[in-house]
Amino acid sequence: MVIGLSLAAACLLGLGFVAQQHAAYREPLSQILHPRLLLDLIHMPLWLAGIGLMFCGQILSAIALGQASVAAVEPLLATSLLFALVAAHMIYQQHFSWVEWLGAVLVSGGVALFLAFGEPRQARGHDLPDPGSPRWLAMLLAVGLTAVLVVIALRVSLQVKAMLLAAAAGVLYGMQDVLTHSTLITLDNGVGAVAQTWQPYIVPCVAIVGLLLNQSAFDAAPLRVSLPATTATEPVIGILLGIVIFAERLHVAPGALAAEVAGLTAMVTGILLLGRSPFLAKRENGALQRQAGER
After folding, report:
1. How far apart are CA 125 and CA 255, in angstroms?
2. In this structure, is the dihedral angle defined by the CA atoms of residues 151, 25, 174 and 212, taken in order, positive or negative?
3. Cα four-point dihedral sign 8, 64, 169, 247
4. 121 φ, ψ to 5°?
5. What are the φ and ψ backbone dihedral angles of 209, each rounded to 5 degrees?
6. Contacts of 34 (CB under 8 A, 6+ apart)
7. What residues contact residue 242 under an 8 Å CB cut-off, 6+ apart?
8. 38 near 206, Cβ under 8 Å?
9. What is the pTM of this model?
10. CA distances (Å), origin 234, targets 6, 26, 52, 177, 187
11. Distance (Å, rounded) from C-alpha 166 to C-alpha 153?
C-alpha cells in the first residue's frame, strides 16, 4: 500500500515538474528569486496544471508518510525523475539511450537495495519528540544550508545557479515532508492537538519558499540541470531529518550498512545520469540564447 502510494505520488510529481518547467522556462531571467515569478506563472494554464499534478502527488505522499517512516517513503519519491523522463520521452518521441537505461536501473536498484537492507521503520510512540524538543533544532541547520546554497547561487554562472537553487528547493521539500509526517502523527490525538503545535503552520511557509526556489531553477535552466538536484537532495535531507528528529531506525549491521550506502549512492548516481538525458534538455540552446540576450 505504502509503496503504491509513494510511486503514484512520484509519478504525479514528475509529470508536474515537466509542466512547470515548460512554463517557467519562458519567463525572463530577471525574475529569478523574485516573487513576481510566481505571480506571472499563476496566469499560465500549463503551469497551473503542473501545480495541480504536484499538489495531488503531495497529497498521496502525505498519506504514505502517515502510514510509514520518512526513510521508507523518501527513496520512492526520488523516482519522480524517472516519470519525468518517460513523459519527456513520450512528448519528444525519441528512443532511450544506454544512459537512460543505466540511470533507470541505478535508481530502481538503489531504492530496492536501500529498502531491502535498511528495513526503515517508525520510531516507537515514546520516541516521538514533543513540539519543543531540541531535536527540532535540526530544522535550523537545514534552513541554514538552504540559505548558504542561495547565497552562493547569486554569485555563480547560470547553469550552476540552477543546480544550487534546485538543491536548496530539495532541502526545503525534505523539511516539508518531515513537518507533514509530524503533523499527521499528531493528528492521531485530534485536531485540537495539531492546532497547539507549530509544525503545521510552518508547512505553508516552507512550501511557498521551496516553490519559488524550484521555479527559479526551472527558469534558469532546462530539466536536465534544474531537476536532478532537487530529486537527489529531498530524500537525503528527509531521511537524515527523520533519523535525527523522529529517531527512525535503520538496520546498522556492517553488511546492511554497506548495502544501504551503496543503495543511496546508486540512487543519486542514477538521478544524476538521468538528469543528463538529452530528452530533458530540448530547450537548452534556447536558454543559452536567452542568457546572451539578457546580457
Report:
1. 28
2. positive
3. negative
4. -145, 155
5. -65, -40
6. none
7. 69, 70, 71, 74, 178, 181, 248
8. no
9. 0.81
10. 14, 26, 20, 9, 24
11. 10
Indicate the Cα dihedral angle 233, 235, 241, 243, nearest 10°.
-140
The 3-state secondary structure of the chain, one letter per residue: CHHHHHHHHHHHHHHHHHHHHHHHCCCCHHHCCCHHHHHHHCCCHHHHHHHHHHHHHHHHHHHHHHHCCHHHHHHHHCCHHHHHHHHHHHHHCCCCCHHHHHHHHHHHHHHHHHHHHHCCECCCHHHCCCCCCHHHHHHHHHHHHHHHHHHHHCCCCHHHHHHHHHHHHHHHHHHHHHHHHHHHHHHCCCHHHHHCCCHHHHHHHHHHHHHHHHHHHHHHCCHHHHCHHHHHHHHHHHHHHHHHHHCCECCCCHHHHHHHHHHHHHHHHHHHHHHCCHHHHCCHHHHHHHHHHHC
Q: What phi and psi, each to the nearest 5 degrees, are found at residue 249? A: -115, 140
Please list the pLDDT of the chain residue by residue as tens digits (295 residues): 888 898 999 999 999 998 998 889 888 888 899 999 999 999 999 999 999 999 999 899 888 877 877 777 877 888 888 888 788 777 766 666 788 788 878 887 888 788 778 766 665 554 567 777 888 899 999 999 999 999 999 988 887 888 899 999 999 999 998 888 888 878 877 888 888 888 889 999 999 999 999 999 999 887 777 888 888 888 888 888 888 888 777 777 888 889 888 988 888 888 788 777 666 654 444 444 444 444 3
Could you tell me which residues come within 8 angstroms of residue 153 by beta carbon, excluding any fewer than 6 positions away? 160, 161, 164, 165, 168
List the grid coordinates of 284. 537548452
